[in-house]
Design goal:
The complex is a heterodimer. By secondary structure, chain A is α+β, with helices and mostly antiparallel strands. Chain A is 44% helix and 15% strand. The mean pLDDT of chain A is 91. The chains are: A alpha+beta, B alpha+beta.
Chain lengths: 85, 141
């Protein structure tokens, strides 16, 4: 995954990042932090496997989130099926 | 370039050794004996010979200490080294294994501090993560 693709995830999922120095972004649902994912620091190709693992999505779902086929509400449904919400 | 292991006799009194990292896979060593000019010794770091698994015990944040070594796998994917802790679903990465471990250390530190501070707002998955982290890390008293 490229850094710009990760930026798409931040925007689409409205991941919470408090400070510029933060190393994690959080997916917040109804006031609770339910998912953490590491923030890219930009100088390496990001390891897809670990982002899929942290976001609890498979390869197809990750591609859908980066692309146009899955929305934030779709992601909430994914997390519900995983028992995280 | 040759593989060289410095024997312990390389640093008797009056001898200084220093190292320059030229690339992720190579070091250049310099040995200076007494007043003689520094002698260059080429060294090669073979990541294949380094362990792919370590118990990690270095945290830079003086507020924290490690209670138990954290089991960390280190592997290379293309040009990126990844240091990961499977159980915590956490990782660090960088252009070499040392950068990956350093990123891992800083990542784990910040995660522990953040989750501890915001414990009341965590969902069940992150509560589990915090519980796990507390088995390995604690704040110094």
């Amino acid at each position: 995954m490229k850094s710009r693709e990760f930026q798409v995830l931040i925007n689409k999922l409205q991941l919470e990042i408090r400070d510029t120095g933060d190393r994690h972004a959080f997916f917040v649902h109804e006031g609770r932090k339910v998912i953490k994912t590491k923030i890219s620091h930009g100088h390496c190709e990001l390891p897809d496997y670990w982002y899929r693992k942290q976001l609890l999505v498979n390869e197809r779902q990750l591609a859908g989130l980066i692309g146009c086929t899955l929305s934030r509400s779709d992601y909430v449904e994914i997390l519900k099926t995983k028992g995280r919400i | 370039m040759s593989d060289t292991i410095l024997p312990p006799t390389i640093t008797p009194a009056g001898t200084q050794a220093s190292f320059i990292k030229e690339s992720p896979d190579s070091l250049k060593g310099f040995v200076q004996r007494d007043t003689q000019s520094p002698e260059s010794i080429p060294l090669t770091v073979s990541n294949d010979e380094l362990p792919p698994f370590v118990y990690f015990g270095t945290i830079h944040d003086p507020r924290l200490q490690i209670i138990h070594g954290i089991p960390v796998d280190i592997r290379r994917e293309g040009d990126t080294y990844i240091a990961s802790w499977e159980e915590a679903e956490e990782f660090g990465y960088g252009t070499d294994r040392f950068a990956a471990l350093d990123d891992f250390s800083r990542t784990i530190t910040q995660l522990f501090v953040t989750l501890d501070r915001e414990e009341d707002t965590l969902g069940p998955g992150l509560v589990e993560t915090l519980t796990l982290l507390r088995q390995y890390l604690q704040f110094r008293e």
